Amino acid sequence: MNDQAGGDMPAQPKPAAQVPVHRLQPDGLRAVFAVPPVWEPELLNDRILLKPREPAAAAVLIPLVMRQDGLHVLLTQRTTHLRDHAGQISFPGGRCEEHDNGPVHTALRETVEEIGLHERHIEVIGQLPVYTTATNFLVTPVVALVQTPFELSPDSFEVAEVFEVPLSFLMDADKHLRNSFVTEHGERYFYAMPWRNGQGREYYIWGATAAMLRNLYRLLSA
Fold first, then answer.
1. Which of 99, 100, 129, 183 has its CB surrounded by the most CB atoms within 10 Å?
2. Residue range 19-49, pLDDT digits in tens
3. CA–CA distance from 78 to each of 67, 91, 152 (Å)?
């Protein structure tokens, strides 16, 4: 699930240091979420509302895959024919349903439905603050470790591709770009984290997905 992040992005003080290496390891992450440091999220909403509508609760999973060379963030690229957010890079997730037992249940259910990642591989370790998107979804990011090996079966209607990006790359502030676009309401700013894989394929991670990753960075570097 993803949306554009916009608005006049306020200047924020930089964290005192880069993310300590031990916090990019499974045990370090478990410790941070078990006893969080004092910190403030940098971005809580998209600052614009593209679709005037009643707010709706949603949840996404931030899956941190445990590989031999370190943790990798699992992301999806949406298919280009979808009505909303076509072609965007996002986390697996979606709207909370009445039968869901909270945001963790939503995130796990949507992950199974979208990419076929079974929850037996997933260890939920915490949550990030709710993020409000431009389409008025109130999204709870659920952070989880993912044990390998696993098999995926992406929903071909919604998901064009599933790929992974090293967590160390996404938690490097030097890779966080502040970009903008012009709307009828003026210039709007958002974070982007462009990434190129080993085969030269480029992925443009931006908007709400990048904003949630930026908040994770702020937590881990606090």
1. 100
2. 999 999 999 999 999 999 999 999 998 877 6
3. 24, 10, 15
Gyration radius of the chain over CA positions:
16
Neighbour-count burial for 170-207, b at 16+ CB within 10 Å, e otherwise:
bbeeebbeeeeeeeeeeebebbbbebeeeeeeebebbb
Pairing assessment for the beta strands 56-67 and 70-78 based on DSSP bridges: antiparallel
- pLDDT value, residue 16: 46
> Quick one: tokens of 218?
């702020």
63 in a structural domain: yes
Q: What is the DSSP string of 51-110?
A: S----EEEEEEEEEEEETTEEEEEEEEE-TT-SSSTT-EE-SEEEPPTT--SHHHHHHHH
Q: Which two tokens stand for residue 128?
A: 């990030």
d(CA 71, CA 164): 9
Domain that holds residue 59: 21-220
Number of domains comprising the chain: 1
Give the predicted TM-score (pTM) of the model: 0.90
Look at residue 184 and tell me if it is in a domain.
yes
**Residue 158 phi, psi (nearest 5):** -100, -30
Given a contact cutoff of 8 angstroms between Cβ atoms, the answer to whether 159 and 79 are in contact is yes
Residue position matching structure tokens 């992950």: 111
